[in-house]
Write a structure and sequence with these properties.
Elements lengths: L1 H9 L10 H8 L5 H28 L9 H4 L2 H22 L20 H41 L3 H38 L4 H26 L1 H7 L4 H13 L1 H18 L4 H25 L3 H27 L15 H29 L5 H38 L3 H28 L12 H9 L1 H23 L3 H25 L5 H24 L3 H22 L1
């Protein structure tokens, strides 16, 4: 399936098409509810019939000597393009029904934007692209912020118990839990690929099978990660952490083992729902979980006086509440994709494992970079203040970063959709508008941090030395916020353009060959301490951002459209072959 696989596999969010006047008129006549769903199913049936007929015609005209080859390989260029043309027309009709574009959108022939000739044109395109961007980024960012808030509020409540406890929980969540989080999320990313393909091809029945298969693999991965939790104390001591911090962190990691197992359900059901663009349910579940988590933390820590044990219990309860709620929604409200337990989940499981591991390695390169920064800080003099102050700043930076993760996903969708639709100018304008808006948000965030540098740490700690250390790091936090407003956006553009392999090599070089060694030298060989480590991290991030900006600046968007077209033809041939 050419367009549907491309859209759903990489971008499980609504696709907005530019419609001509005829399609707009048809769209206005579209009925809602069950009638619309019925028509979509009929369109899919027409697509299948079109492909079947064209394949039959191609087979009738092919040389018998090539009968051993696949049906796709038998097609001549003209036959294949004939098949593709009929197929694309049917897919475009279905996409228009599902994802209508704004009726006021002005487009040139072919659907691309006209050249900007004045302020009025720029203003109009700014408004249209902003609407599209935030329509996708908003729900994603809200979901991520709520989930991240569970970690942050755990740190906030523990910070009022004591500095040692804050540092221990920060190490446990930032190092051990973050390690498993990145690995598990990467493993679950393989599910997004297969569910997207199945949903786009109309094989909705297979979604539940893929979901179960991924759950089996992720539960197995949890047992693989258990030693990291059980032996966290000696591991942290081996890494040079102070004994008091390492022992408390080790106890906390053992207590949050149930939370790790909840990720096997949380991540898989999340990818299952995203493949069908059902992100609204994820946002509501995350919001309710965050509010409940704050209430449970208050009850266990402030009322029952359970200390770190109460924080761990609240963390486990909230994590499993999210996982169970998402699973209930899948089983109860996704009847098309969930058909019950199936033995097919065990079929070709090793191939799924290989795909999952490959996805995990790509994602972990970036996540573990920031985890390593915390570990390096634990070797400095007065590690309690150093780790605690850096963790508070990272918490604040993480809150802002959640917004840009949503923008990252949104710009990836926009660039991919426009390149796939043959609209190079729209892709370019979308990139420019998104970068400008993101940079504006980053600058405003940095100004707020600098204006409140002596006050914002109060919500995390009552310790005066800790608050002073945080204030000293505020300038670096502001710089990081500005950088992080651009870097995720450019990374999203790169992913949308299909440059994942290139970006992985860039991350490896900038983070692990430049950033970490430089941070080590500045932190341990000078008097800068934690500031030196952070400066090294900033240099790595800055270098990565500059390289990616240069790549985007030198990009020929017309060539990217051609490459996207070739990519879709290849995927279409694979889909026809599978049929």
């Amino acid at each position: 399936m050419v367009l549907l696989i491309y859209s759903q596999r990489h971008h499980p969010f609504p696709k907005i098409l530019v419609l001509n006047s005829t399609n707009k008129h048809q769209l206005q006549q579209t009925q809602q509810g069950k009638k619309e769903k019925q028509r979509v199913l009929q369109n899919r049936a027409k697509i299948a019939n079109t492909i079947e007929c064209e394949l039959q015609n191609a087979e009738d005209n092919v040389n018998p000597s090539s009968a051993s080859s696949s049906p796709t390989h038998k097609l001549t260029d003209s036959q294949f393009h004939s098949t593709s043309s009929a197929f694309l027309d049917a897919v475009a009709l279905e996409s228009a029904d599902l994802h209508p574009a704004p009726t006021t959108l002005v487009a040139t022939e072919g659907g691309d934007y006209p050249l900007v000739t004045g302020f009025g044109d720029a203003k109009y395109i700014w408004f249209v692209e902003s609407s599209k961007l935030w329509g996708i980024a908003g729900p994603i960012a809200f979901n991520i912020i709520c989930n991240y808030g569970i970690n942050s509020f755990t740190n906030i409540f523990v910070g009022h118990i004591g500095d040692v406890e804050l540092s221990a929980v920060a190490i446990a969540l930032s190092v051990v839990a973050n390690f498993s989080f990145g690995f598990m999320l990467g493993m679950a990313s393989a599910l997004e690929t297969l569910c997207g393909q199945a949903f786009g091809a109309g094989q909705v029945d297979m979604l539940g099978v893929y979901l179960q298969r991924s759950m089996i693999i992720l539960f197995g991965a949890c047992f693989f990660l258990l030693p990291l939790y059980i032996y966290a104390t000696p591991i942290l001591k081996l890494l040079g952490q102070e004994t008091d911090i390492a022992e408390l962190a080790g106890k906390f990691t053992v207590q949050v083992i149930p939370q790790m197992f909840s990720l096997a359900i949380n991540f898989t059901t999340q990818k299952f729902l995203q493949a069908q663009s059902k992100v609204g349910a994820l946002a509501w579940i995350a919001f309710v979980a965050l509010i409940s988590h704050i209430m449970i933390l208050h009850l266990f820590i402030n009322v029952f006086k359970w200390g770190m044990v109460g924080a761990a219990a609240a963390y486990d309860i909230s994590a499993w509440a999210v996982a169970v709620a998402q699973l209930i929604y899948v089983v109860g409200w996704c009847k098309d994709g969930w058909k019950g337990l199936s033995w097919l989940a065990f079929k070709d499981i090793w191939g799924f494992v290989r795909l999952s591991i490959a996805s995990a390695v790509m994602l972990c390169l970036e996540i573990w970079y920031f985890m390593t920064i915390i570990v390096l800080t634990g070797h400095l003099e007065d590690p309690i203040i150093a780790v605690g102050s850096l963790s508070i700043c990272m918490n604040i930076n993480g809150w802002e970063g959640m917004i840009f993760i949503g923008i990252n996903a949104a710009i990836s969708v926009r660039v991919s959709n426009e390149l796939g639709s043959g609209h190079p100018r729209a892709a370019k304008y979308s990139v420019v508008i998104t970068v400008v808006q993101s940079l504006l948000i980053g600058c405003i965030s940095a100004i707020i941090i600098l204006a409140t540098k002596n006050k914002f740490s109060i919500i995390f700690t009552d310790s005066e030395p800790m608050r002073k250390a945080v204030a000293d790091l505020a300038y670096l936090l502001g710089i990081t916020m500005v950088l992080n407003s651009v870097q995720p956006v450019i990374s999203g553009v790169a992913v949308g353009g299909g440059w994942q392999g290139l970006v992985a090599y860039i991350n490896l070089f900038c983070y692990y060959i430049v950033g970490l060694p430089l941070g080590f030298l500045l932190g341990y060989k000078t008097t800068l301490g934690v500031q030196g480590i952070w400066i090294g991290m900033i240099c790595g991030t800055f270098l990565q951002t500059v390289i990616l900006v240069f790549i985007v600046y030198k990009t020929n968007w017309n060539e990217e459209v051609e490459q996207a077209s070739e990519r879709m033809k290849q995927w279409g041939a694979e889909a026809l072959d599978a049929t």
